[in-house]
Amino acid sequence: MTAKIIDGKAYAEGLRARIAGHVARLQREHDITPGLAVVIVGEDPASRIYVTNKAKQTAEVGMFSEKHELPASTSEAELLALIEHLNKNSKIHGILVQLPLPGHIDPNKVINAISPDKDVDCFTPASVGKLTIGLPGPVSCTPLGCLMLLRDQLGSLSGLNAVIVGRSNLVGKPMAQLLLRENCTVTIAHSRTKDLAEVVRRADIVVAAVGRPQMIKGDWIKPGATVIDVGINRVPAPERGEGRTRLVGDVDYESAALVAGAITPVPGGVGPMTIACLLANTVTTASLINGLTPPKDLTP
Fold first, then answer.
1. Does residue 35 sit in helix, strand or coil?
2. Which of 111, 93, 32 lies closest to 279, judged by CA?
């Protein structure tokens, strides 16, 4: 068996086109332009590239975009004051503070300062609570992207056995909640799970988010299973030259693709979905803030 490749890049392009349509409709029918503010503190090169891409894609779908680039010397009080200003700004419907923050700033204090109504990253306790009990609202971007890819590939997920390898607040736990909503039977496994390979072999759906390069091997995969690889790991690639590296996922792609029914590549799988889902979440929060029903094709 050779697995079907799940093209996250192509799906994300289509999703952004749908988002642009919803933005245009909100502007036309309600005079609302969804607005996203992204805040970065410090000079981390990868974070700056990511933030620039977010701002660019926000503008491309017709949204209002604000980028706040602060020096690493910014105090916690100054950052909290900016967040409070953004909470009160009616042009802003989504606030994202890029992590990591400099060591002298408490990330939990910063996250908790964001208005739950504008929490498009879905990190605040209120957002986590809404997801857990099924209230309307945005959902963590990467898990939402995974769910969209799974629905597109499989249609109904009801009754399927899903194993999530990884228990992070960012991916593993919210992914479990989303799959429970889809009537999956869900197991959260991790690096210390006893007989992990055997647990994974029972899964119709495998979501790998453990943060260990190529940890999940092909002989762990049930034949025909759908594999969603969230991992992004940089490993040495001496075949490309001295000091060169390449990106790999948490799944050993070459061996897993011989067994799985469908699989996301790294790169080009889940990664492109994250920013697209951030934009989707901003449309959702803009709708809810203004008393409107969010578009069904952008929410779980």
1. strand
2. 93
Question: Which residues belong to the active site?
Answer: 54, 98, 121
State the residue for tokens 């228990």.
167
Model confidence band, residue 35 (pLDDT cutoffs 50, 70, 90): very high
Contacts of 218-223 with CB under 8 Å at 24 or more apart are: 218/252, 218/254, 218/255, 218/256, 218/257, 218/258, 218/259, 219/255, 219/259, 220/196, 220/256, 221/256, 221/259, 221/260, 222/259, 223/1, 223/259, 223/260, 223/261
Per-residue pLDDT of 247-270, as tens digits, reads 999 999 999 999 999 999 999 999
Unique residue bearing structure tokens 């989303």: 178
Rounded Cα distance between 114 and 103, Å, is 19
User: Which of 65, 58, 37, 16 lies closest to 273 in space, CA to CA?
Assistant: 16
